[in-house]
Amino acid sequence: MRIGQKVIPHFAHEQLDGCALGQGEGEYHEKGKLDLYNWLKQQGGLEVALEPYIEKIKQRPDILVKVGSRYCAVEFQCALISEEILQKRTKGYLRIGIQPIWIIGKERIKLRGGNLAVLKPFEQLFFQQFASNNYPILLSYCPRTNMLTSISNPYPLKTKVYGNMVTRPLAQLCFYDLFKEGLLSIQKLYSCWLKEKILIRTQKNRFLSHIEQQYFEWLYTKGLHPQHLPSLIHLPIPNHFHVQTPVYMWQSSFLLNIVVPLQVGGIFHLDNIYDKLLFYSQRKMIFSFRKISEEPLKEYVQLLKVLGYLKQLNKNTFQKSKEILLYRTLEEGIKNDQHIIKQLKDRIK
């Protein structure tokens, strides 16, 4: 037990070499955990326990909440831990029918304007879904300001995530507000996404990740530069958070490998093209219970159909309707980016 004039009384984890559970047990974490515990205790209809030990899985959640006949484990995570530990703890709860609710420390995320957050890959693992028909939600809490932030309906792009963001005082929320998602305005998203499309065309190829190096080398083998890419590449779609690879990479692979080489009138079958896509890997979503109603690639194909470039012959067979242009200059590419985004915005008015 640690007690002092400047320290919130708490049980400290004995420091053992190699023990990941001892990380992050500082004042920020302790105050946040106690804030959440007291907030839950003040609400009617909930049974709340602080740091109970669950013998069956040998885990000790920050807070255990009983709602009717169901249990939820609330974890306030401030420290960086391995994905393996995160998965193990989550699967442990799920195995015995306990719903995990992960809330990360607000200091781990950076908000950039009303609909943009900067999240490293570790923080993106905490997007969680509480029902099969919901979009993912990321929850964060700041014990210094007593504010809880939710990010839902995410459109991730590397370390950026566009989404519906709501920040409210914890005292104004009830337990069930944790599960409420909000939808991002698609008009706002398209306006932001135009800037991202232009960034892809103009970015300097410095400090690239391994997959980015592979992507640019692949483009160069085709005699292409990002400035030349069709404006149909790098378009946001509702379920693209299910794909680990950045949007512009897998859409480039599909368009340049499958559609562009076809003559107008040529056909392709969706069932036969996955092995030809160089950049298309599913995202690891530890907390995802969502059944994908529309797989991301199929959503993209439907968008190309709406824009008039493809015609659907049957469920999985499509025909190329018109040529897809490669641009000669940066100015031509940006002009057409603006045109395609305007088309998308006009179609949802």
Automatic annotation (TrEMBL):
Residues of the Competence protein CoiA nuclease-like domain: 25-181
What Pfam families does the record point to? Answer: CoiA_C, CoiA_nuc
Limits of the Competence protein CoiA C-terminal domain: 190-333
Q: Which domain of life is it from?
A: Bacteria
* TM stretches of this protein: none
| InterPro entries the UniProt entry points to | CoiA_C, CoiA_nuc, Competence-induced_CoiA
Name it: Competence CoiA-like predicted nuclease
Q: What species is this protein from?
A: Salirhabdus euzebyi
